[in-house]
Every structure is written in C-alpha cells, then in structure tokens.
Amino acid sequence: MTINGLENNYYLTQNDIWVTINGFTEVVTKVVIDFKNITTNNELKGFECSASIENDCSLNVCFPVRALMPEPDHVNINTLQSFQIKVTVKFKNTSLPDEVVTINKYFIRGGRDKYGANEWHLNDGYSLIVNKWISGGKSWNSPTPPLKISGGSLIEDDAVQNYIQEEKKSCNGLLIKYLNSLGCYQYFYFDKYELKNKTKAAKTVNRITNRLRNDNFQNIGYSETKTLTLYSFTEKELQLNFEDLIKSLHIFYFDSNGIDHDSSWHLIRLDDNSSTWNNYENAFENKAEFTLPNFRTLEI
Fold it and tell me: pTM of the prediction?
C-alpha cells in the first residue's frame, strides 16, 4: 500500500488536502480510514472510500481533521494538533487478510492561498508569523510573543524582527488580537473607532383598561444591535497584516478595564470591510465593521 499526499508534515487544515491510496496487487473493494486526534484523544472512525476502476482511493483528509480540531483558545494556544490516521484495506478476495497502515501527522489550524512557492504544509522551525510581527506602537506593546514550530510544539520565535506600527492619530485607538492564517495570534492597532448601539421595539400587546389614565398596551421586548467600526491609516508594509486579519475566524478587541483574559479580550464578528489607497497620506485607509455580542434578553 502507498499513501500519496502525506509525505510531509504540519499540514494546514483550511486547505483541501487530497490523498490517494494505491499500490495494490489485488482487487480492492473498499478502504476504511479512522482519524484520531492524539492531542485531545477524540476520534472519528469508519470513513469509507470505494475503490475506483484504477483500483485506488482518493479522499480529502482535512474534512475529518477539521471536525476533530478543538475550539480555538487564544490563551492556551491549541492550533497545532497531533493526528493518527489508520488505513484499513479490504480485498475482493475475502481469504486475504486486511492490509493496515497507521501514520502520524501534525495539523495546524490555518490555510494558504495559491501564491508563489506556497505549499499547504509547513516545516519544522517555520515561523508562524504572516507578513510583519507588530510588536507595538507609541501607546502599546504586544502582550504575547511570536511563535514557531519546534519538534511538534509551538515555542517563542526570538529570531523574528519586531515592527513598530505607526499611529497616525493622537487619540487613543483600539488594539485587536486575531488568529492569523498560520495558527498564531497577532496584533493590529486601529487609530480610530466608533461604537454604535441601536434598539428596535418588538410588537406591543394591547390591554383592556377600565380607566383613561391606565395604559392600554404593554411593551414585550426589544432587539438590540451593537456595532464596532474600526479605522486605520496603514502603511504599505503592514497592509498584508490587515488583509490577513479580515479573514480571521477568531478576532478580539482589548478592554483595558478587564482584570483577566476573559474580561480583557472581547470576541467580535466581522461584518464588512474596505481598503482605499490614499496617496496624500501614503497609506491605506482601512475600515472594518464588527457586530458585538448581546448578553441580555430584552423581553418581559
């Protein structure tokens, strides 16, 4: 048996990685694949792949791998996971024993676009920083260090060059933390932000009253929408950081009133974004709109 497509390691889960299993001398009826996340001890068994007329089998291994990845954790970073893939081949000639091969591979929560020499896997020692590592600005410093792969673990990458982000405005801005496309958390500072709150009343319920001075209806609730709009004049060197940020599945803004990780970082959802080149400022005018979560049910 030959498994083609997993010759390397540290594969990116957001890419569709197709693997072909072949090299048989006997006719194959089906191939059964079991996936196990060794890091979390969770598993998915019994993925069946029927043999083609060429007597081989192809499947996208990242489909079950994504399902076994844990929920992202920005405090105890868990983007690198160890997996075991067990392949069992059953033959048309039932007198033949099953052929079984087990391989172990690392997978990282991330993905790449087709560009240059990019591959959908990384190498040991590879830095997980996308474009520039922004270590701070005039009013802030990055709370956590950059990371790299080292022997199946993520460790601090002390060889990364620090980049200080220019702040165009004198007012206090907002610090954003986001999971980049290679499985590391990076930071980006927005010079200006706007917070908007909007409430909309639901239908009312009519009431029977026996006096004019009594109310003849009752409010039953409201829907509330909170939005956060961020603005930044971004130098050319950092535009790829912004473009990576707006594709992130895990974005937080920093609350200086927080007393721990949970209260200091607020998870937000991206709704819209835009980028415009400003030749006068020699920078990109970036804008990103987010929806903030509601923690109250405004109903009677």
Answer: 0.90
